[in-house]
C-alpha cells in the first residue's frame, strides 16, 4: 500500500530572505547577508509594511491615483469642451416656417450656440435641453433654473413657445441662452432691466453674426434680406418702454468691448456708466 505524501516545495530566494528578516524589530537586516541581499530584504519589509497599513504597496497606490487623475481629466475635458456629436443635426427650416417640435428647437439652439461660441459666449459641453411648451404665461421663451448640490447652479431646460417662425424662434433662443449663460457663469442677482438688456444685446449679436459670418450647414435657411429685416425690427423697437434695459446696455457698451462690459457686470452686479460723448456708435466691431 502506497502512501502519498505532500511534496514540499523549496521556498524561493525572496521568501527565504524574508523569513531571515521577519523576526527583526528594526529594518536592519542581519549582517550575514550580502549588501544586495540586505537591500532586497529592506525592500520586502517596506512593501509588507505598506500592505499592512494601506492594503496595497505605494507603487500600486500611485498607479491607482494616476488612473483616477486620468478619469477625472477625461470627465473635465468632456464637461468643458464642446461635444460636436451633440451639435450635428439634419433638419432644415425656412425662416418663415413654424417651429413646433423639440427637435426643431434643438437644431436652432445648436445654431445659436455655435455662432456665439465664436465670440466667447459658450458653455462648452453643458447640456441644455430645449422644449417646445405651450404654457409660458404669455412669454415666448423661458429658462428653468435650479440650484444643485453645494451651491452649484443648473439649468433644467429652455422653454420655447410653439408656432414661432424660425427667425423669431432663433432670436428668442439666443436671448434665453444668454439668460442661461449668466446663471451658469455665476453672475450675481441683477435688476430685470440689466438682465433683459444683456440678453437682448446678445440676441442682437447673434443676428449680426449670422449676417456677417453665415455658417454652412445651419438649420435655419434664410436670406440676407430676412436677417436684415429682423435686425431692423430690433433696432426700431429700441425706443419702446419694454426695451429700456436694451437702450441702457447699448449706452454702456459704446466705446467698450462686450467682454469688458460683462466683466464689470459680473463684478458689480450692474451696468457701468456710459463713457463720455464722442465715442463711436454701436457697431458690429464693438460687439466682438
From TrEMBL:
Q: Which InterPro entries match?
A: DA1-like (IPR045218), DA1-like_dom (IPR022087)
- Record keywords: Transmembrane included? yes
> Superkingdom, according to UniProt?
Eukaryota
Q: Where are the transmembrane segments?
A: 54-76
List each coiled-coil range.
none
Tagged with keyword Transport: no
Annotated Protein DA1-like domain ranges read 148-232
- Key words, A-Z: Membrane, Transmembrane, Transmembrane helix
Q: What's the protein name? A: Protein DA1-like domain-containing protein
